[in-house]
Design brief:
The chain has helices spanning about 1-20, 25, 45, 50-60, 65-75, 75-90, 110-134; strands spanning about 30-35, 35-40, 65, 95-100, 105-110. It is of the alpha+beta class. The strands form two sheets. Strands 3-5-4 form a three-stranded antiparallel β-sheet. The protein is globular and about 55 Å long. The N and C termini lie far apart (about 45 Å). About 20% of the residues are buried.
Length: about 130
Amino acid sequence: MAAKQNAARRLREKKDFVAAGPAAASQGASATAPGLKVTPHLDRLVHERLRLGILSALSVNQSLTFNDLKKLLESTDGNLSVHARKLEEAGYITCTKSFDKRLPRSDYRLTATGRRALDRYLDHMEALIQAMRK
């Protein structure tokens, strides 16, 4: 039951962010009190540290293996696999499994959807930074 509620909340947050867009962050999405501005929610799927690291690494590399990502992000097997699976389920990355000399190999690539999500996230963060400097 709690898992369904959490999934529904995440979906609502994602829709709110996409609908408002990153430009709303610098203008304030809505006012709850005089002078208090509330920005739309960040894409929680991208905002988590390890997931942001995976997307960032894949944005500057055509593909990376599981072991490459694990070393680069200084992560454990279990932690990396859970976060990579979340991104894969969202369609942000793809995973191709093969064998290299009888050893399993997982290659990850950033999808067009993943690149757009990362770009939206970065635009949103830039808008927040600009709003804070004003």
